[in-house]
Amino acid sequence: MNDVHAETTLLLILGGVALIVAVRLIAEKTGLPAAALLTIAGITYALLPGPNVELEPELVMTYVIPPLLYNAALDSSLLDIRRHIRTVISLSVLLVLVTALLIGYGIDLWVSGATLAAGVALGAAVAPPDPVAALAVGRRAGLPGKLITLIQGEGLLNDATALTILTVAIAAAEGGDFSVPSAAGQFFLMAIGGVVAGLVVAFLLRQLRHIRQDPLTANALSLATPLAAYILAESVHVSGVLAVVVAGLIIGHDSPRYSGAASRLQTSAVWRLVDFLLEGVVFLLIGQQVPAVVRELANYDMSTIVTAVAVTVGVTLIVRPLWLILTQLLPRSLHARLGGEDIDGKHSERALTGREVTALSWAGTRGVISLAAIFTLPASVPHRDLLHFCALVVVLVTLLGQGLTFAPLVRMLGLRANHADLARERNEARAASVRAALDRLDDIQEEQHDHVEDRAIGHMRKQLEVRLERYSRRLDLLEKSDSDEVPTSPEYEAALMVRRKVIEAQREELLRWRDAGNLNDESLRILERELDHEERLLPDRK
Questions:
Q1: Where found in the cell (predicted)?
Q2: Higher pLDDT, 501 or 333
Q3: CA–CA distance, 338 with 154 (Å, rounded to integer)
């Protein structure tokens, strides 16, 4: 029996991985969001006969959500989020709180037998958007960097807000009255504790910077960090999700300073794989919950179901754009208008445009955190099955409705990142780093050294000067361009093409040596890795 169970589990895992890979290929060819396609695939599989996978909220909250949030935090910019911190807090804290309370009061008022605490618990579960689908589509559609930062920053912090509110609401639903002031006080205590826990984990990992130079050790520590941050925070009853996010933001910011090059390359590759598989599993799980949740509605009349769903979906879809619009009307003295950013050291309160507000409004897709959160409700909560269904409908409406239409909307709005500005920024930084290297060579030149070292310095100087000249020509071309797109440079493209073909010829020759028996496989892998790193370092045309 155990063998049969083990074989079934293995088949489900292999089938899931195959489906995730297939959907990724379809998404790349069609431009459709993989999250929506995986959800549809999960629904389809759930309707077929055979074993199904039930969502275990504790497992998802402990082993799936922390790694996903941690990797998102590693890829985020601490400086950009800090620059837009008022906007991020407006979306990830205040908007989540308002959404949860409005849904709570709506359920309490319009659904007979429901309580305010149960309604707030539902509101907290569906309030936080899951940015995975929106970011994937937004990046592919060329969404401007500021909007990417806002979506990313909101998605990192809103889960902590929602889950903290949910914890308070569940406690009230099980034996007490829901008090907004009391809930607010508990929320701030849990949030502050979560920030402190994240800072502690980041500080401890910084102390291990010497052993993080080894790639395998760095990978092991990196994979363990989100789980450690989550467990530390939850053990002292503060926000584990916020601890994971804070730790990830700080560690990602410090990584260039405290990690070795090989460690960063390998850790980045490992996290891309983990993120790819976990995200795929998450959206498949969402789809597979549909039949089970629908079966729970047998004891409810249709009018109750329609009312509860209308309140939940209506508030979820309407409050976000209203909030974004109203925050544009705040007085400049409050320094909280959306879109405010630092320019030349001064805070400029440039409001978001109507097109940007529309895009952000449509980026509110909900995901697995909403389902995992609502599934943690104890059986004693009134209308628990109905709340499950309401949360599922919100997830499906936003994930499929907004997810499938987000890319066409972005294109219709004409929102595109200024690729020429981004390319100019990168090339200016490249040129600055080369000048710093030439200055360091001047310092070395003044020190005592022999003729061998002198030749090495001269050779390196020629390489750097050629590189600096190439970057200067590239910058001149970018400065003369009036377009938002990166102008082509025949010399630049030709140089990259030649280098890639040379590397390809070297790799083919090594394989011929191995096949002829003149080079063993271990040596081949070492030499091949050298060429792989050289090829990986080749820049794209930007």
A1: Cell membrane
A2: 501
A3: 13
State how far the Cα of 176 lies from the Cα of 168, in Å rounded to an integer. 10
218 pLDDT tier (thresholds 50, 70, 90): confident
CA distances from 303 to 112, 310, 388, 421 (A): 11, 10, 17, 55
Instruction: Provide the CA 89 distance to its chain's centre, in angstroms.
Output: 17
Q: Which amino acid is at 482?
A: D
Within the chain, what is the greatest distance between any pair of CA atoms? 91
Is the distance from CB of 397 to CB of 310 less than 8 angstroms? no
Digit-coded pLDDT (tens) for 378-409: 888 889 899 999 999 999 999 888 888 888 88
Residues 6+ apart with CB under 8 A from 296: 385, 386, 388, 389
Q: Give the length of the chain.
A: 542
pLDDT band at residue 349 under the 50/70/90 scheme: very low
The dihedral formed by the CA atoms of 168, 90, 74 and 241, expressed in degrees to the nearest 10 = 0
- Residue type for 410, please? V
pLDDT score for 484: 62
Q: Which DSSP symbol is given to 343? A: E
Helix axes 302-326, 384-396, angle to 10 degrees: 50
Of the candidates 356, 367, 296, the one whose C-alpha atom is nearest the C-alpha of residue 327 is: 356
Query: With bands split at pLDDT 50, 70 and 90, how would you rate the model's confidence at 318?
Result: very high
Helix (H) or strand (E) holding 394: helix 384-396
| Torsion sign across C-alpha atoms 168, 173, 179, 180 | positive
* DSSP string across 105-151: HHHHHHSTT--HHHHHHHHHHHSS--HHHHHHHHHHHT--HHHHHHH
